[in-house]
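Record type: monomer structure entry
Structure origin: computed from sequence
Chain ID: A
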Amino acid sequence: MKPRELWRKLLGGERGLMLAELVVVSFLLSTVVTGVIHGVVSGTRMNYVSGQHMAALGLCLERLEQMRETPYAEITPANFPDEPSLPLTHLGGSGAIPLGCARRARMRAHTDPDYKRVTVTVTWAYLGREESEQLAGAVFRKD
């Protein structure tokens, strides 16, 4: 038996598709395509937010390294003030406009005078949500 004859036998001799079959196939296809589009959009957004977090971590690390290169006695809040309006490095997406962010460094007193504990935080807003990245470290006396 040829494949064409087998196909006609399975369909009961019909040669075309009924309207109900076309509607079901269209519904299934549109559901699958909608899911794929949603997945691509969500993945792109998550990739962009991840890039923002990496750029913010870079700003935190930059401030910590600046402190490590500064003479120990000069590492004070007055020498490292809060920066309320820095551009968060643009990594693509959203119309190629860098996001604004704020960076602050907090130094905590410690019983050992040979090192200072430092926490650097970068905060920014994206799609109405407050995002932040934080890096904690220590700065040791080099004498």
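Annotation 1: The two ends are 93 Å apart (CA to CA).
Annotation 2: The longest strand covers residues 115-126.
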